[in-house]
């Protein structure tokens, strides 16, 4: 039987490994594999297959609507008329909204927002007999494993 678990890299991982050795798991049957965490920052524009949940047009669309209504109303008294001035207002409001949102997004990206929650830094793989499987799993959970999985066979 194999047990896979993920841990943050701290003292609880070392204590868990020591406890596993005390119950009879050989050192050769315990594998600790460190993970490389993501270093690159997120992309500014979303693709069809990946989205970060940040919309660039959530401010632009209401501003485009408001500017087009206001400039169309004023356009009745201007030379080009309400249609042209409504379109000019919509485009201006949309561009202003995009610029505002880009400034907010770029400013927040400069602060290097951290991911929420705990980060797995080490994968611990333990090979043991099925009789010890429940005990090993209990030890892993007691020593703050982020996740545990069992594979029979």
Give an overview of the whole structure.
There is one protein chain. The chain has 153 residues and is α+β, with helices and mostly antiparallel strands. Helix content is 46%, strand content 14%. The chain is built from four helices and four strands; from the N terminus they run βαβααβαβ. A four-stranded antiparallel β-sheet has the order 2-3-1-4, covered by helices on one side. The longest helix is centred in the middle third of the chain and has 29 residues. The mean pLDDT is 85.
Q: What's the pLDDT, averaged over the residues?
A: 85
CATH C-level name of the largest domain:
Alpha Beta
* CATH architecture type of the largest domain: 2-Layer Sandwich
Write down the secondary-structure element order.
Answer: EHEHHEHE
Summary, kept brief:
It comes from Pontibacillus yanchengensis Y32. The chain has 153 residues and is of the alpha+beta class.
Please give the structural blueprint:
Elements: E1 2-7, H1 11-22, E2 30-34, H2 60-75, H3 82-110, E3 122-127, H4 130-142, E4 147-151
Antiparallel strand pairs: 1-3, 1-4, 2-3
Helix pairs in contact: 2-3
Which features would summarize this protein structure in a list?
four-stranded antiparallel beta sheet, 4 strands, single chain, 153 residues, alpha+beta, Alpha-Beta Plaits, 4 helices
